[in-house]
Amino acid sequence: MIGPDLVLQARTRIAPHVHRTPVLTCQAVDALTGARVVFKCENFQRTGSFKFRGACNAVAALCERERPRGVLAHSSGNHAQALALAARMHGIRAHVVMPEDAPATKREATAAYGAAITLCAPTHRAREATANALQEKTGATFVSAHNDPQVIAGQGTACLELIEDAGPCDLLLAPVGGGGLLAGTLLAAEHAAPTAQVIGCEPAGADDAARGLARGERITEFVPNTIADGLRTPLGDNTFAILHEHGVPIVVVAEQDIVRAMRFVWERMKIVIEPSSAVAVAPLLTGQLDTEGQRVGVILSGGNVDLSHVFASLQRRLS
């Protein structure tokens, strides 16, 4: 059973290893929305995203029989980095399958954390097939980036901390790709903020959650087309079940609004967030949600951005 108790257990298990990330506010956002908005800054988490919470919980929960064979995952980057570091911290081997189009910074960081990387075609089917073959070869325990119960529970600890540090919220916003963060947030809110409405935020170029929940069946075959590379994965069966059971609404965000939200946070809050994080900010800036007079919590999922082209442009100006 995946429920709030699993999230509470995860909080205790990972407390010695994760950062208790800060909760920030922004007067400019409050003025635009007429709300009191608080941001849980998982961009300051180890490896730069909330993914470390779930990966650390899953690795720490392994039994003694599983540890010698190591762990395995497929990921476009954030879960890859998180699992690599969690495995290294617990003294076990990590194998990671990454799509060929994964951001170079995320590939480099994953390798630096000690994982063995195998590249594959940039499709969900190719990722799964490559991971299956690698698991058969190594015997490693597969740790899903979003569908593993211990991963879901670990992700929910971000919401627990947000409520503990900022107080009760009327609305809680989280981005949704594979659904681990949103599912964990729902479970955490069920325990810590039962009156809050949890809302998923999804890019229009990868809106399988919105369409699948509307029709009542999980969508697994689609070609994502979004700048939010961390949200290109379809919902898992566990995350779909949790989202469907809770009847969570999904707000779909246009690509141009993701970019605008990302720039807004960089310029006004002076912090770096990645496009996947901006997906949860965009609905506040576009007016897609009625937030007047409400307390709103937003989980900024990560800050891993490839800035090489930015600095290359600056360097050219100096030449």
- Count the E strands: 10
Roughly what percent helix?
A: 40-55%
What is the name of the CATH architecture of the largest domain? 3-Layer(aba) Sandwich
N-to-C series of helices and strands: HEHEHEHEHEHEHEHEHHEHHEH
SS content category: alpha/beta
State the strand order across the main sheet. 1-2-10-7-8-9
What composes the largest sheet? Answer: 6 strands, mixed
Mean pLDDT: 95
In CATH, the topology of the largest domain is named Rossmann fold
Euclidean distance between termini CA atoms: 60 Å
- Low-confidence stretches at least 5 residues in length (pLDDT < 50)? none
Rg computed from alpha carbons, rounded to a whole number of angstroms: 18 Å
Number of helices: 13
Give the tags.
319 residues, alpha/beta, Rossmann fold, 2 domains, 6-stranded mixed β-sheet, 4-stranded parallel β-sheet, 13 helices, 10 strands
What does this molecule look like?
This protein has helices spanning 4-14, 27-33, 51-60, 78-89, 104-112, 124-138, 149-166, 180-192, 208-215, 237-246, 255-269, 275-286, 308-318; strands spanning 23-25, 36-41, 71-74, 94-99, 116-120, 141-142, 171-175, 197-203, 250-253, 295-300. It is α/β, with parallel strands linked by helices and 319 residues long. It has two domains: 4-47 and 148-300, Rossmann fold; 52-142, Rossmann fold (3-Layer(aba) Sandwich), CATH 3.40.50. The strands form two sheets. Strands 1-2-10-7-8-9 form a six-stranded mixed β-sheet, with helices on both faces. Strands 5-4-3-6 form a four-stranded parallel β-sheet, sandwiched between helices. Helix 5 (104-112) links the parallel strand 4 and strand 5 (116-120). The radius of gyration is 18 Å and the shape is globular. The protein starts with a helix and ends with a helix. The mean pLDDT is 95.
